[in-house]
Structure formats: C-alpha cells, structure tokens
Amino acid sequence: MNKWAVIAIVVITMIIYLPVINGLKDAFLNTNNQFTLGTLSNILSKNNIRRSLWITTIQALTSTLIALLIGSLLAVIMVSISIPGEKLFHIVGFTAFMAPPMIVVTGFLDLYGEYGFLSSIIPQLGVLGKGLTGIIAAHVFYNIPLAFSFVYSALIGVPREIIHTVILFSGGKVKYIIKKIIIPYISPAIISSGLIIFIYCFTSFAIPLSIGGIYYSTLEVYIYRYYKISFQPNNAAAIAFIQYLILQLIVLIIIAMYRREKIMAAPITAYKYPFKISRIAYFLGIIYSYAVLFYLLLPLIIIPIYGFVNPYTNRLDIDAWTHLLNPTYDPGIGVSIGQIYINTFYYALMTLVLGVSISLFIAVASPRTVDVIYLSLLAISPLTLSYGLLRSYGGILPVPLIIVLAHITATLPLATRLLRIGYYRIPRIILDSARVIGERGIPYIFRVLIPLMKPSLVTASLLAIIISIGEFSATYFIATSNYYTISPTIHVLRSLRKWEEADALATLLLIITASIVALVRGRIESWRMQ
Amino acid sequence: MEDAIVELRNIYKSYSGRLILENINLSFKAGKINTILGPSGAGKTTLLKIIAGLEEPDRGSVYIKGVEVTNKPPWKRGVSMVFQEPALLPHLNVYENIAFGLEVLELKREEINERVRRAASLLKIEHLLDKYPEQLSGGEAKRVSLARALVVGADILLLDEPFSNLDLALREDLRRELYIIQRKLGITIIHVTHDHDEALEISDYISILHNGKVIDHGETLRVYEKPKNRAAAKFWKHNVVNCKSGIVELLQLPTCSEGYYVLPPHYLGVASGDECYLEKILIRRNHALLVVECMGESIIVSTTIIQARDYSEGVRIGLTLLVDKDEIAFIHG
User: What pTM value is reported for the model?
Assistant: First the structure.
C-alpha cells in the first residue's frame, strides 16, 4: 500500500467510516445506552416501517426499471440514427443529471403539482406530482441520463470491426445483432447502472420528502422523522442500519459486476452503427427521442418562468426577484437571504478546497484502494452519514464544518473518479522522471501532480461546487435555519407556499448549475466513457 | 475464370468535405488474388468497405457478378470479410465465433459442426475450438477470423490488412497459407495492404491506390516492372531517369527530348568502370541495395548480399543493364 493510500484511508476513516459506525451502533443501544437487539426488532415490527421498506424498495425498483428502459432505448436510437440537435440531448441530459434535487422537485411540482401548469390543463397528469407515482416520475427524470450514459458508452465502446463483422455475418437479422452485440455488450452496463440507480432512488431524500408526502415516506424520510421530529435517535439509527445492510448487499453485487464489465471494456469508437433503418423506424426513433428530451427539459424550463408568476394573481411580476436580491430580506425562516447566500458559497468553497484535496489523495492511491473507497461510499446514505457526523462531532465541531464534511463526502465519488482518470492520463514516464530527479512529498504534489492534473482538478472543483451548492439531504438534516443553504431554503419556501420565491431561488440554483455544466460538459463527456 | 467478378464504376467518396476516393474504376478478376496496394490514408479500407456494403459511395456503382449491388446491404452481396483486427466476439469461444455466420443460415447442427471443423482444419486451429478470444495469441486470432470468413462459403473474400500487427515470421507464414488456401478453394480474394512485399508475394493482380486515385492496375509483374506512370514508379521506389540524363547515355539507352525511363533496381548491375561512386550499401534480409551516385543522380541498384561483400563504400564503379533495352518501360511526358 502506498503512502497516498494510507493518507486517503485515514482521512476517509475520520470523516466517514468512524462517524457512520458510531451512528449505526445506536441501533444496538437502548435509551440507557445498554446493548440490546430490542431497538432493531421493535423497529422491524412496526407496520409503518415495514410499509416504508416496501415503498422504498418498490419505488426504487420501478424507477430503476423505467429509467433503464427509457435510457437504454434512447442510447440504442442515438447510436443507430442521426438525430437533429443531438448535442442538445447531451447538454439537457447532463444538466438533468447534475441538477440539485430541489430543482427537480420544484420543476415537477410546478408542472404536475397541486397547481401545476400541466396538471391544471390535464388533471390526469397530477399523478406525476404526488404520491408514489410522483416519486417514481421524478426519480425516472433524474436517472434517465445516467442509464443513457452507461448504455451509450457501452455501445459506442464496441469496436467498429466487431459491429461490421456482426452486420456482415448476421444476414441483417436484427435478432442476431441484438443477441451478439447489444445484449453481451450492454448487459453489464445495464446491470451496473441499474444497481447504482437503485441505490440513488433507495436513498433519495428530497424527492420522497417533498413529493411523496407522509403516506409514502421512504426509509430515508423515516430516519429524518425519527431523529428530527420524534427525537428517537436509536430508532433512526436502527432504520439506518437496516438500510445500510440492504445497500451493502447491492454494493457486493456491483463489485462482482464491476469485474465482469472490465473484461468487456473496449476502446471508444464514437461511431454510428451502420444499420439500415426504415423510414418509419427512423421517424419513430426521432419522435421517441424528442419525447424523452421534452420530459427532461420541461421541468427545467418551467422553473425560471414561474419565478416571475404570482401564484395568487397569476400575473407576471418581479417581486420574488426583488426580495431575493435584497440581502437583508428574511424569506420567513428567521435568517436573511444574504446569510443563506454566504452559507451556500462558504460551504461550497470549503468543499472545493477540502473535498478536491482529499479526492486527490484517494485518486493517486492504488487502484484497489480507490475501488474499495468508492464502492463503500455507495452503501452509505446521506442521512446515515449525517446522523453519524452529528453523533460523533456534534458539540465538538462547529455546525458549518459538520455540514462541509457531509458535502465533502457527497463530492468524493465523482471528484475521485475524475481525478483518477486525470491521474492515469499522465504519461508514467513523466512521473517516473520527476521521481528520478528527486521530486517527492509536498513539492512533488505542487510542482508535478497539480500542474499535470490541472484540467481534471478544474473539472472536479467545478463539480464539487455544484454538488455542495445543490446538496439538500445532509444540510437539511444537520443544519438549523441559520446554517441553511439555498436548497433547504427552497424547500422551506415551498412549505410556506411562497412558490414564486421558491422558483426564483431555484432559478438561481439552475443558472449556477447550468453554467458549470456548460463549462465542464465536453470534458466530462469524453472522460465518462473511460 | 478470369472474368471480372467485382467492378467499381466512377466511385467517389468523401468524409467531412475531404475527398477520400476520386473516380475509381476497377475490376477484380474471379478466382484470383487481387490486391489494392497503397500508403496509409490512400482510401484502401474505404474502398473495401464500399465493396462490402459497409460504406456507401457518394457517387458511382458497385457490381458483383454483373449485378449492381450499390444499394444492397452487406449480407446480400455474397462477400465475406476479414478485418485488420480479428474482431472476434469476446463472449463466444472459437467454435462459436467460426459458427456465427452459419447459425444465421439456419443450417442443421451436424452441417455447422462439419463446416466449422473443416475450416478449423484448413487453418490448423482444431486445438483452439474451445478457447476464448482472450486466450489466443495474435496469430491464432487472425487464423480464427480467417476461418470465420471462409466457413460461410462466400465466393469473394475481402481482406483488410489481415496480417498487420503480426511479427514478420508469422506474417510470412500466414500469407503463404492464405495463398495455398486460395489456390485450393479457387475463391476470389480482394486484399488490401500497404506492404509492397506482401502484395508482390501473393497477388495475381495489383491496383495501386494513391491519394484516393488508382494510379496503376494490372498483373503483378507488369505493375511492378513496368509502371504506367511516374507516380506508380516512384511508389515502388524504382529509379525514374530523365531520358536526357547522362545515365541514359551511360546505359546506352536511346535518348529523347521528353520522357522517363523506369529502371527497377533489379534491372541494374555493377560493372567495371569509374563513372559512378558507391555511396552506401544497404543490407536487406534477402538482398542488398547499393546507393550509387552517377552523373549527379542517385541510383539504387539491387544485388545479392554475397556480391555486396565485394564492394566497399566510397569506391568508383561502373553501371550496367541486366535486361534487354526493349524490356524497359518508358513514360512519356
């Protein structure tokens, strides 16, 4: 194990593993801090928890299957035909994927919610803005780009000569093309992305909280309710423990799949398959693709519009923006909006500096260490971590720092992945020659690693900013209102029925996200496939 | 048997505004090894893919056995193809990879088995049938891809630099085996390569493609020894001598006002004399090349390695013709 791996593991242990263990141990304690299995058995015997487990699983499973179906079909269409405005699909897809959960919530409620734009015209569409169907619809929105991305990468990774061989020897029979290329090459991608989507949906918090309502609370929502509303931390820990076990099982399956996918990995050819597509199939493909595009685009478009619409008079005005641009304005949470902005950007800056630094240490550690850290993070839900952080460092560290630690953890998987690719892109000969001339330690980092990894560091930093600014679950769980950022404020504004202000604030978040996405998209697109 | 089996008429192809193939008119003979020879980027692979139906020409027509197939899909053209990379499906074993094209024909299991084993025997890979592509060496994988292409029984086999990325000895073994297989089965091969030696060794006919244009086409020896133009002669690295130059007088060739003589290195020999100066001796695997400076021009002369031992760099020598004067190609212009 190299020294980078040691540093990475020590840091990760301090900010993630120890707090999580510390938090989960509460599941085995009673109120007198004595060991017991009663808390777990008690929580498992509760009908509402059993129902929540069922809802959590069924919404995650359904969302995953629908997102996979829609995303995979879109990927197959995109490698088969030229679609007008293809770049727009990638931009919208990436923006939707990177959009903070509160943007998705806001967009969905604006369109399909109680007074939603579309649900007012077609009442049947109201099912997409509430309850189980609403949770699924929002999760599908979020995860279509992920499924598309995995499957599209797998398809364009099939060597061109393999495609030609199969076309030549398959006699043009679609079933052979599907059997010999599509299924073998994309099934690992579908399973891997499916498992990751399942985890995202299983641990999603903002969407079930805002759209699902009390009747459709997921396990993550129950952790929140037991800890923050009922003040029963042991019960919250018990639910977190059950959730952790389920996620850990999925991670083990991912590890097995991950190995298989490596065998199938191939160089990227970025190539349209030379299928002979009939005119009808072509038009159906175009219609389907644009339908998906609109499903992704509409929630993002409605937010800025509703930021100018007074929900009570239905007239256009700039009241919300006037309020939000006044730093002393209190949106009704007892804190000025100026303070909210300061909190948001302060956490983002801290996350950028600390998160990217830690990610750098992990990225240059041995590949095995990186894999272990990356995969172990998948099994830890945001609220499980937040609970652990509060239990371990609450009262010891200032709240803003605890929030920053949670944001760092949210940043690590993506930042590490980007930096790792950046690191492995550096020709080994350059690193070896730097070591031969005696570069080591801190000078090695600043004089060799950082300059050589500059593009990936910039990208990782920008993404760290998006993730921190948009983070909702941990911030809402850990912070009191004086430590809120933009995302929890949007949630509170919606609860206070200040929809116009919520939309204006979500627009601000969307502008930041879209700007950063525009800056990093090209780079991410090319790295995503590696 | 020597009729044209594949014909290309006025083929044009461009990518992103760049012309890759320009007015290609070629015919390939049935039952022969036809080679498209050219440097990298000449458009060889694109041309082969147009024949296979994997690329569509911008203009022009493709005929196979007298029938226009320009708009027909690959599987309706009666061709088979071996790519530069073996392109074996990684999730199928060698047997399944070879049988892939047969399964599609929905043949009986026994017939598939029989044909796979026959092809494997022809390519000497019977012992590999249970292995997976990742367990094969480069040469073995090429043999498997060749077997897969042969087993479907197509009359026309397209080969896109099939021996690239192999070491020299293996490359030579495989091309000799391919030659023997072609003679045995009597199939038509259209073969693409950038390797002069490979083209000369196995081809019955050679077409030289340069910058998207055919600069020469014909029987191998004719194309090699008597190129039709200066570009083709230069492509072979023959000596192209202006008919007014002193060398022409030295070799007692008829002088003229305009034109060039094409003197392949093996047409020239060293003679007693002091008109020329031996600049450099280049030892090659089976022969030697002498770089000779004669009357201000650099001339390449081919000789045996044993003869080359008698010379040393810097000595003065004479030059002679080893063939009759009327065998030498003359290019007007």
Answer: 0.78
